[in-house]
Amino acid sequence: MTIRATLRALALSSAAALTLAACQQQEAATTQAAETTPATAEAGQAQMAPAFTLVDAEGVQRSLADFRGKTVVLEWTNDGCPYVKKHYTGAMQALQRQATADGVVWLTIISSSPGTQGYVEGADARAWKDRFEAGFTHLLLDPSGEVGKLYDAKTTPDMRIIDPEGRLVFVGGIDDRPTNKVEDLDGATNYVAAALADMKAGRPVQTAYATPYGCAIKYPETVGT
Questions:
Q1: Helical H runs in 36-170?
Q2: What is the pLDDT of residues 110-139, one digit of tens each?
Q3: What are the phi and psi torsion angles at 115 (to 5°)?
C-alpha cells in the first residue's frame, strides 16, 4: 500500500470513529430526555401545595392551612359529568368514607362557573352531600375557578393528594380506565386509593402522576365556547 493510500485509510477510519461517537452521544442525550418525562415534572413530588381559602357549602371559610399536619385529598367534581357519575355510583363515596375513617381530610371542589354544568349554590350546595350520600369532609365552592386554575385542575374528576407536610404527592387522574362506563370500575387500578395505602404504610407513593380524564372544568372563560 502506498503512503497516500495509507493516509486515506487512516482518514476514513478517523471519520468513522467520530461519526460513531457523535451517534452514541446523541443516543445518550435522547435516552436522558426520555427518562425525564412530563409525568415526572407534573407529579410535583417536591412541590408544596399552593395555599387557598374557599367558602364551603355551609358558608364557612375553609383554608388549606387549617388542615396542616393531616393528609388532604382534593377532588374536582361536576355532578352533570358522565365521568363523575361513573364514580359516584358508589365507588367514590366508598373511597371517601374509607379515607376519612383513616383521618384523611377530603375536600371536594366545584369549580364550575355560574350558569354552567355542575354549578351549585345555596340550598342545592347544602344538599349535595346528602343527595349523593357522599363521604367527603367539606364541599368547597370555587365559582371563579381561581383555585382550580391554581392547581392546574383540568377535568372532572381530577385529584390531588397533599401529605401532612403540605407537599403534593399525587396529581392527576383517579384510575387507569379513562372511560365513563361503570363496568370499567371493576378491575381498575385506583391511583388515589393506592397512594393513600402507600402513605398509610409509610411507603413512598409509587404512582405520583396519572393523566387526568373526564369533562373539562367549566371555567368562566370557557362559557359559550
A1: 38-43, 82-87, 91-101, 122-132, 146-150
A2: 999 999 999 999 999 999 999 999 999 999
A3: 85, 0
